[in-house]
Amino acid sequence: LVFFLMTGKDRIIFATKEDHETPSSAELVADDPDDPYEEQGLILPNGDINWNCPCLGGMASGPCGEQFKSAFSCFHYSTEEIKGSDCVDQFRAMQECMQKYPDLYPQEDEEEEKEKSSKDLEANTVEASIAKEEKGSS
User: What are the start and end residues of every segment in region (Disordered) (predicted)?
Assistant: First the structure.
């Protein structure tokens, strides 16, 4: 028994062994570039954001989808010299929303970040010491 779970619009499909043994009746159709539902990448030909692009990883849907869309739209259309610098409030709202759903939007714990930073610093220091010793011994 096999099942699939799609994020976003949660859809579970159960398939039996018999389902797998039966030849598929699916028909492949040539891509139609004028099909509005055809995946066009992140930016559509008219310059709009394609919220259905798989590259967004489903961020445009879910409990913080509206906050994500607001922040991403602001950044995309920003004309500030430092692109997106006018979008701080939207990104803050998105982050606050995501913090309410840690199971859906996992974030590194501050302790984990500090531990990772100290390990990186330690590794860089050891590498620098080894390089210095190798240089001095030649």
Answer: 102-138
* Pairwise CA distance, residues 53 & 64, whole Å: 17
**What Cα–Cα distance (Å) separates residue 17 from each residue in 6, 14, 27, 136?**
21, 10, 22, 67
> How do residues 89-110 score in pLDDT, each as one tens digit?
999 999 999 999 998 888 776 5
Distance CA 75, CA 134 (A): 48
Query: What integer best gives the mean pLDDT of the chain?
Result: 74
Whole-model pTM? Answer: 0.52
Go through 30-60 and write b for each residue having 16 or more CB atoms within 10 A of its CB, e for each that does not: eeeeeeeeeebeeeeeeeebbbeeeebeebb
- Domain limits at 75? 47-108
Could you give the number of structural domains in the chain?
1
